[in-house]
Amino acid sequence: MGTVTINANVDNNCLQDGPNSVYRTATSNTLRQTSTTARIMALNWDLSSIPANCRINSATLYLRVYSLESGAATIYAQRWLAAWGATTITWNNMPSAAGDGDSSVSTGTTLNVDVAVPVTNIV
Description:
Helix content: under 10%
Main location: secreted
Structural class: mainly beta
Order of helices and strands: EEEEEE
Pfam family, one: CBM96
Protein name: Carbohydrate-binding module family 96 domain-containing protein
Largest sheet: 2 strands, antiparallel
Subcellular location: Secreted
GO cellular component, one term: extracellular region
């Protein structure tokens, strides 16, 4: 039994205060915390390298906290029910989620640390 690391291959941000805009990033993704509008970081992984009969015992999403505007933030991980494109997704056309807050953690207030978000139940 081994550990496999799979990096996101597609990403974008969906911002409530820019509902029709595409915020595609080329090599990394940053999402600024705000207390007034909702913001979603859309990430996708190519899981085709995982064999169909493989059992996943655990899955964790790691996100790095570089700065916080006003204390700790809450990160929610959700599985979307439809495909989406990095160059076309916006707040107004993002797919529905399978559940509300399938997994969530607080970032805490320490900077330059990785926050581990358990996502086993949505892989």
